[in-house]
Amino acid sequence: MKADLEPNLLLDEQLCFALYAASRRLTAVYRPLLDALGLTYPQYLVMLVLWERDGITVRELGARLQLDSGTLTPLLKRLEQADLLLRRRRESDEREVEITLTNAGRSLHERATEVPRCLAKKLCMSADEFVRLRDELKSLAIQLAPTQE
Amino acid sequence: MKADLEPNLLLDEQLCFALYAASRRLTAVYRPLLDALGLTYPQYLVMLVLWERDGITVRELGARLQLDSGTLTPLLKRLEQADLLLRRRRESDEREVEITLTNAGRSLHERATEVPRCLAKKLCMSADEFVRLRDELKSLAIQLAPTQE
DNA sequence: TCAAATTTAATTGTGCACAATATATTTTTT
DNA sequence: AAAAAATATATTGTGCACAATTAAATTTGA
């Protein structure tokens, strides 16, 4: 079947809705796995960043996840309450807040390794399909990024 | 380059983050266009459904968008406040609430036709690429749907 | 040097998402 | 027909997202 070239207002033909629905569905599949770790999905993303590089600032975290302090500040406070990380002003520049994992935060990494494995099973997708879809989405996001000037 | 077969915890290799980030980016591109119509992105989705078929219930709307009454009820109340639709209990079954477009709600359709056209430009994607990505996301969502039993 | 501009987080306010529960109505079962 | 089960929506509460504003620290530059 030939692709319809006319942009229209039919829900089922929108890329945006397909993206929005798939993203929510995938998050819903993560939910029970992350519940077991005591994390929400955005909190899990923050932990992924910190497991890669600890001691970064809120700004660096935000740049990585494309989230601002309005989202991150309360989220990080909750993770601090859960004893997974510490927030403290940097001495070198008091504007910045440095995020440091606690021992509990670091040890959660081990239990979290089950999460991607468990998800890979549910995805029923070959590694090549996985990589191709992921990279298409990444370039879409880059292409839609605000014009940098 | 060969696809990495090992599921891991690196942010940039996660499909979920690519999906989450792309979805938020695309919504952000819609935002100024929808602001002009006085709609948020989820409100726009509701209007898409109603422009296709008016007089449906909250349940049918929810089935279509995969949203529950906890999300839809307040959203629909806001659209009612904006004079775009009416909510009223059905006489045939008082449990159901039927959503009907007002004249203002119907006439918004015409102005909205600009939205997908405007977006198609920003996407810089061939119709075939567009359709393929959209349909991959749709089958991903279907595949991740809760096991129906 | 010191005033202006910039940078970084936090705060405030709105609007989703979604789980859990409540309420009212309808249908089914006994 | 009455009780029980199922259905549809609303409500409550938590946690994002994100725009707009505020506040404090730092950098820039006249």
Brief summary of the model shown:
With 149 residues, chain A is mainly alpha-helical. The first copy, chain A, has helices spanning 15-35, 41-52, 58-65, 69-81, 103-112, 114-123, 127-143, and strands spanning 56-57, 85-89, 97-101.
Notes on the structure:
Chains A, B: It holds the Pfam family Staph_reg_Sar_Rot. Chains A, B: GO terms for molecular function: DNA binding; DNA-binding transcription factor activity. The structure is a homodimer of 149-residue chains. Chain A is mainly alpha-helical. The first copy, chain A, has one domain: Winged helix-like DNA-binding domain superfamily/Winged helix DNA-binding domain (Arc Repressor Mutant, subunit A, Orthogonal Bundle). In chain A, 61% of the residues lie in helices and 8% in strands. The first copy, chain A, has helices at 15-35, 41-52, 58-65, 69-81, 103-112, 114-123, 127-143; strands at 56-57, 85-89, 97-101. A 3-stranded antiparallel sheet of chain A has the order 1-3-2. In chain A, strand 2 (85-89) and strand 3 (97-101) form a beta hairpin. The longest helix of chain A is centred in the N-terminal third of the chain and has 21 residues, at 15-35. Chain A is globular and about 60 Å long. At the A-B interface, helix 1, helix 2, helix 6 and helix 7 of A face helix 1, helix 2, helix 6 and helix 7 of B. Chain A binds a DNA duplex (30 and 30 nucleotides) through residues 24, 27-28, 31, 40-43, 57-59, 67-75, 78, 89, 93-97.
Q: What key attributes describe this structure?
A:
homodimer; 149 residues; mainly alpha; Arc Repressor Mutant, subunit A; three-stranded antiparallel beta sheet; 7 helices
